Each structure stands twice: as C-alpha cells, then as structure tokens.
What does this fold into?
Amino acid sequence: MHTAQRVTYFRESVIREMTRLAMDYDAINLSQGYPDFDTPLPLKEAAVNAIREGNNQYSFTWGYLPLREKLAERYTSLLGWTVDPAEHVTVTCGVTEAINVAMLAVSNPGDDVLLIEPGHENFIPAIILAGARPVAVPLEHPEYRLDFERLSACITPRTCALLLNTPHNPTGRVFDAKEIDIVANLAQQHDIVLITDEIYDRILYDGRHHLSPGGFEQLRERTITIGGFSKTYAITGWRLGYMVAPTQLMRAIRPVHDFLTICAPTPLQIAAVMALSFPQDYYDGILSDYHQRRDVMVEILKDLGFTMTVPEGAYYILADYSRMEIPQAQWDSRSFAEWMVREYRVAVVPGSVFYSLPGYGEHCMRFSFSKKVETLLDAGERMRRIKPL
Ligand code: PLP
It folds into this structure.
C-alpha cells in the first residue's frame, strides 16, 4: 500500500498512549492535560441552546462575528494595537489547528522552524506536515530560561519562524520581559516570524501577569498570537482556538484555515461568546483553584522525594525522580512511567517525550494537576507506597 513518507517521521503520541494505559490499569490519569472537573454550567447550556435554536450549519470561515469581536476587544488591550475583527482574527478548531495553519502559512519546504524543548509533542509534527525542518533549542534544567547564545546558534539562513509557548508546557515557565526581548531582537535581526502558543494565558501563579510577545514593539508586525478555550473554560473537547495577527500574516493564514477545516463548530463558537463575557470572578476562581492544586501536587511530590522547579504558570510539574531512594531512580523515564502506571495505577508522562534532542528529559516525569484536589490526594496516597525505602 502506498503511504506518505512524512508519516514515517511521526511516532505515536506517548501522552495519548499513557492515557490508554491509564484506562487499561484503571489508573488515575495525570498524563493528558485535561480536567476531571466539569465545564461551567452556563457554558454547557449556551452550547445546547445554540444547537436547539438551529445554529447547526457552517459559520463564516474566519469565525462567528460576535466571537471575533470579543476576541478583538481582548487582544486590542493585550497587544496594544487596534485588533480589527474583520481583518486580524480567525477562529480555529483548537490551538492544534492554529499551530498547523501557522506553519503552513509561513514556511516553505526546506525552511527551518525553531522550537523550544522541552515542548508540547504536537509541535514537531506540525512543522513536519508543513515540509519544514524542526530545529530544537533546549532549555536547561532547573531554570529553563531562554538563552540568547543558544537561540542565535540555532538560526540559519533558512530559519523562517520561531514557535514559543508561554506559559510553558511542560516546565511551567512564564517567560519574562528580558527573555521576550531576546526573542524580539533575534526575530527582527533575522527576519523571523514569531508564532506564540498562549493557551495557558489565564493560568499564572503568585501574582504573575502574562506577557503576550505580540505586544512588544519589535514583534507586532511579525507575530502570530495563538490562544484557545480548552484550558481556561475546561472544554478541551470543544476544539476551539483562535489566531490574531497583523494584516499581511492574516492574509496568508485565512485561506489555509479555510481549506483545512472550513470553520470551527458553529454552536460552540456561539457559546464561547458567553465564555468571553464571564466576569472577573470566574478567572479569580479558576486561579485560586489552580493555586491550590499546584500547591497540593508540589507537596505530594516533594514528600515522595521528587525534585522540581515550582511552576509559574500552566498546570504541569516536571519532576525529577533521580534522587529518590529507590533502585528504579536509575531507570529511563519511559520505563519509570510504565512502572508507575502498572504498579501504582498513576499515569504520568515520561520527560523524554518532550524532547527530540538526545539525552534530555531522562529521570523526569510530567504530572498534570488539572484535576480535582481529591484526585490529586488519591494519586498521592497511591504513590506513597513508593516512598524511599
Ligand atoms: N498547546 C499546548 C502548549 C498544550 O499544552 C495543548 C494541550 O495540552 C495544546 C496546545 C492543545 O490545545 P487545543 O486543545 O486548543 O488544541
């Protein structure tokens, strides 16, 4: 059977494989980043009503206008330039589609696209699907800071884009103004398009504020800002995301989105207008819940002998097990994760999954804490049995 060569470069998603193992072993699933608590009721009702009221056909390709208007309002204030819903916003089927669209819109086969590692496992496939070459730049444990020398050393005459995710999965880093300045200078100097994945932009800890790189003067004309609804509103299954970009970039983006998916789901876009109208209380509420979940998870892991950098944002902890007083502390991260799910019925993601660079990510596990506190405590109880001998 004739199949495309490009698929041979993909491996099976280990995150989704861990979710499958979690089901097989009836384990608590701290691997895939989705909540085990429910979507806000008014949002569910808005979606059901939208369907009942007959909004079941394609929406306008770029997205339901009232939703684009809401997004334009928010991003005008986040980015500091006038975001026009008619020109600068496109609603997509999740951030996942948006990243793929961005790659197809800015890169040519043979171009290089920089990405940061550790990083979300969908990024490299998106670059490969566009025919470009992924070039990974590592962040070093434990600070995981963006570094000028490392970034500039990876730039080639074929570098067309840099993909940056902040707040960052899986490290929990929130890149600061100094780090974004580094990116801005390099992007300008080498004429690079910046593609940002800001899906965790409402989940930041200890009073931190999200910095949207597209709001930096040098980056305004060359940034595709991507955001989503999955995480903030606990609707990962709705598949809703969006892209905000200046006119020239948006002109390249829109036909790609159109021919890939036509539009995002109409009734869910209508419900999402309500999400963007939630009062500040809603965001304060999710933030205080996430603070609690983060603190509970950090305590559980520290108690067990894991070491980690406490997350500044997003909802993951990358925890190192190499100092645990158990023989398994020497194992590679894949074996450790399989052992955890089999023996303790807690599913997590091996750190090596987040790197294509050899030798990185071993002895680390990613724990997702987008779960009820009782789920986290239950996982803690199960893992207590692996406490130091
Ligand atoms: N980007 C990052 C950094 C993620 O962590 C995830 C999901 O875990 C996604 C994108 C997927 O986003 P969406 O559900 O909007 O496709």
